[in-house]
Write a structure and sequence with these properties.
mainly beta; six-stranded mixed beta sheet; six-stranded antiparallel beta sheet
Length: 287
């Protein structure tokens, strides 16, 4: 298998090993199905049925969907296990309302006769509280051409990894409002890590008056899972101070590494402009 796991199931880790898996589909859309090929190795002769439960885990390890079936998928009798390594194909439907982001499959093996969930151990004989396959990506639906055309175009690049293609925001606000901005990122090359976005509201003197720092799409769609050419719609909502003075404000956008807080350098028009980008449009705060 492409991805090795080596999880041994049994009270003493001596029944059957989940060798690894191949991702037939590494990313999909809500409403579609994730498919994986799982490779097993029989560790000792046995003569009882086993059941495999696959739990689809989303954000905060929340179970989004579960599939249970005969571990051997009825290819072999549960009373006559195959010798050596064998494989089975598994399909996990993604709920239509599933959030985009990074998902995992948690594998559990149960002795059917006794309804006993078998513990798992590593080849170093250490307990494995959870046997996880993945990560798998549920892609975010791309913005439509009409939506992009209605946005304000931008031309900033953070290295050779990410570009800000367009943006749109509320041109006016009042103190205490929730002010919203939508950023449209384009993935140029596979990002090296999960970057944090900062959105800063600056006054006429360049002083910071409101800010929001967050990984894209509320942290659910980190940059490390973006694909080359993908356009990501990314929304932010800043709470403005209640005592914010009326006037004109600028918006600064940037990316940084965490936990080092090192900002990525920005280029625009083929020239480096610093470690953030100032958007052209003004936010007018009125009394």
């Amino acid at each position: 298998p492409t991805h090795r796991v080596a999880a041994r199931f049994g009270d003493y880790g001596d029944l059957i090993e989940l060798v690894g898996y191949d991702a037939v589909t590494s990313r999909t859309l809500p409403g579609e199905s994730l498919r994986v090929t799982i490779f097993w190795r029989v560790l000792k002769p046995a003569n009882e049925p086993l059941e495999l439960a696959l739990h689809l885990l989303g954000r905060d390890e929340r179970v989004v969907a579960t599939r249970r079936d005969d571990l051997f998928q009825h290819k072999y009798s549960g009373w006559a296990w195959p010798q050596g390594i064998f494989s089975t194909e598994w399909t996990m439907p993604i709920p239509q309302d599933a959030e985009s982001g990074r998902y995992f499959l948690q594998a559990e093996v149960t002795q059917t006769r006794f309804a006993h969930t078998l513990p798992a151990r590593s080849w170093a004989d250490e307990p494995m509280p959870a046997v996880l396959l993945g990560a798998f990506k549920v892609s975010a639906p791309p913005p439509s051409a009409a939506e992009l055309q209605s946005a304000r175009m931008a031309s900033a690049r953070w290295g050779d990894q990410i570009a800000l293609t367009a943006y749109m925001f509320d041109p006016s606000a009042q103190p205490g409002d929730t002010w919203r901005i939508t950023l449209y990122w384009t993935c140029l090359t596979k990002p090296a890590q999960d970057y944090t976005v900062f959105v800063h509201l600056l006054d006429a003197e360049g002083k910071l008056r409101a800010q929001l720092d967050m990984q894209p799409r509320g942290g659910a769609y980190p940059t490390s899972i973006w694909d080359v050419g993908e356009i990501v719609r990314d929304e932010y909502a800043l709470t403005l101070p209640g005592d914010l003075a009326p006037g004109e404000y600028r918006v600064a956008i940037g990316l940084y590494e965490y936990p080092s807080l090192i900002r990525m350098r920005v280029q625009s028009g083929g020239k480096e402009i610093g470690d953030y980008m100032l958007l052209d449009e003004i936010v007018q705060v009125t009394p």
